[in-house]
Prior knowledge:
Rossmann fold, 8-stranded mixed sheet
Amino acid sequence: MKQFKCWITLFFACIWTAAHLQAQPYVTKYKWSRDGDQYYTISNGEIVRIHMPDQSSTTVLAKVDLTTQSMHQQVKPEDFSISEDGGKILLYTHSEKVWRYHTRGDYWVYDIATKALTQLGKGLPESSLMFAKFSPDGKKVAYSSGHNMYVEDLTSHRIKQLTKDGTDRIINGTFDWVYEEEFGARDGFRWSGDSKKIAFWHVDAREIKNFLMINNTDSIYPYTIPVEYPVVGQEPSSVKIGVVNIEDDKITWMQIPGDPREHYLPRMEWTAGDAVVVQQLDRKQQVSTLYLANASNGVAHAFYKEKSDTWVDIKSRWHGDNPIGWDFIEQGKAFLWVTEKDGWRHIYRVDMQGHEKLITHGDYDILDLLAVNEKEGYVYFMASPDNATQQYLYRTKLDGSGKAERVSPQEEAGTHTYNISPNGKYAEHTFSNANTFPVRDWVALPSNKIIGTKPVTRPLPPGFPKVKYIQIKTDEGVVMDASVTLPEHFDSTKKYPLVFYVYTEPASCTVKDSWGNGRNFLYQGDMQKDGYIYVSIDSRGTPAPKGTAWRHSIYKKVGILNIHDQYEAAKKVVQWPFVDKDRVAVWGWSGGGSTTLNLMFQHPDVYKTGIAVAAVANFLTYDNVYQERYMGLPTDPDNTYKTASPLSHAGGLEGNLLVIHGSGDDNVHYQNAEMLINELIKHDKIFSFMEFPNRTHAISEGEGTSKFLAHLYTHYLQQHCPPGAK
């Protein structure tokens, strides 16, 4: 139901608005040194150190160093980390996919002083180690394998198993499917600052039922693939946090109040002392409570609470949705926290007694908290107070005084991203907009002055259609942002076919002023040359930086309010004199597929052709964390699950509909497609359908799949919504 993939074509790259990132290595491109004056990266299979600001390079680990003497094989690092004292390098290789990311693999340690290269986890299955990390003193490495926790001494390489109960359903040190999918939680353990203890998550998923996917193609006899998947209405996995003493293996469980089957624990970190700070959410995700838990005896007390009548949003506001780390300041006496409690997403200073102070002021949302430069007294964050489709770097005083200062260049309108050094002095900077190819450079902060060679910008090809951004106001006074791409050699006196691209759910926006936006990544060919108008609209409920009221207005109305808004805005668009009302199509993926179905079924007066990819047809089939967050519980007397689901409106189909789904989709299950097929048959509705055997939510696996999908999509669109002016 969320965002997922980057597809690069000859001229553009864009975000596929559907679910999550397709399986990719779970890595960080750059590893900053602790002082922030240099960074490490992988270059041509070697580890190199780049010195700032001159960007001179030094090879830290050459290929000859990565060749084992015993087996004469070269370790090819996919990711790495460096011990705090800089004396050892942890190398990650031979990775394998776990759900979305390649988070399981082999680890090696290179000792710079002795030049010894040693594999970790010997005796454990190949490519089974997860999230290995050095202890702060650099003497040990901890990792998860087979859902158990291990620690390995780097002198003797003695391996100690810290937990013994790990199974396919008892999970230590990592997470189950839904925690990864909906909270971004993957790495499930943390070293204490003194290197003597490890805090870890323990997930008991034994009560979660299996969803069975069927593989009909890879053997003569079909077989099932079980996926532990808690659907709407099912109790969450029971989750608790333990602290294990490395010396004696004793585990102390943190005594977080409340039934663990009715709460979530999505964030946890060590404080400066012998305690962990834990965030707890209630089942409906309307109450967020922070607990301070004593690591020695497990006693926990609440010190900060936030409530909402809709939901407390914990994603999309820290460091790219990665719930690792806690923004401590003042030597651990306080931290930075992000809430929407005053109607805007703002940064607060919170101390360990729960006292808070507003840091960012004004009627605007922060988009992400990026870095803290405590020495100079600034916090850096992303925001766009004046244009919800764009993104800029700002900074403001850490003490809450003064106004936010824009750091991104005033002359560069569009979307900026930054990877900021720990000392706040340098950053990798990328800029683009819908009509400007991405440009990457290195800059000094806060001046944003380019370090080193200025990058060469590439102009758009001659005649390349430009994306325009407009606002559409409905008869009810709702103002929505929209992107519009007109045909090449557009003639306003002629009539053109119109294609809407939709998503509209709380997980993602489609109208962003960044490269690739406003262009159809699935169309095989050039839509604008072929004579299509391409439009996308962000309706209420999308996570645009327009205030809490905008985003949370969709509570219990996913599939209702967003459908209403899209239709009301579309009625304005089809009134444009150059739109052919008989040639209007709509398409989307995942949540966008659901929107496509609802629009086709409920508003055939506007939408004549639809292509729904990997759609949720019945909202009761989706996972509990996501769907209950935005729709409440199915036991609520005012629940709207049936009304909101496309399945309930299938009898309204009048136009042309193509339904596409992968039978191996572990996110939006293929079950949705078959439920929809049954309903359309019942109402005697003619439609087209394409199953992709064993393909996941991305529908990208297998030889020829992506090409065939694009061909299918394009052929159907051209057949039922013919291109060209009339």
